[in-house]
Design a protein that fits this description.
It is built from four helices and no strands.
């Protein structure tokens, strides 16, 4: 264009173009390019928020896991303590009963068979109901040879 106006001794200092009609395909490509740039900017802006949200969910899950482990450990300690206390109580009761039987054997001069006979008599004596039995005394049961 400059060459053309140079032939007529004219200088172009300013040019204004109006009513430019570009092809529809070109316009579509330009719009798609601008839309892609906007989507990239949106994704870049959303990335930190998404990362923080994911990190928060991860931390919540880790914390919940720790709470579950601590609760399970606490529950197991409580169950173990109760079991140990119950075992100690049962053991103490059995020791007291064994000591009582040992005292009966010593004080009455009984054998083990004699103690069993004594206990059988005591059980029957303390029973308020009528008892009908037909077996020999426990001492006789164990002395058969």
């Amino acid at each position: 264009m400059v060459k053309r106006f140079t032939e007529v001794n004219a200088d172009i200092t300013d040019l204004q173009v109006s009513n430019i009609k570009r092809p529809d395909e070109y316009e579509t490509v330009v719009r798609n390019k601008e839309s892609a740039k906007e989507n990239i900017n949106i994704a870049k802006n959303e990335r930190p928020r998404a990362l923080i949200e994911a990190e928060t969910k991860k931390e919540e899950a880790v914390t919940q896991g720790r709470i579950s482990i601590q609760t399970a450990n606490s529950d197991s300690r409580v169950i173990l303590s109760k079991a140990e206390a119950e075992a100690a109580s049962i053991l103490a009761a059995l020791r007291a009963e064994a000591e009582a039987y040992a005292n009966i054997i010593r004080s009455q001069g009984l054998s083990v068979d004699g103690l069993l006979s004594y206990l059988g008599v005591r059980v029957l004596a303390e029973n308020n109901n009528t008892v009908s039995i037909g077996f020999p005394a426990p001492a006789d049961l164990f002395n058969k040879t």
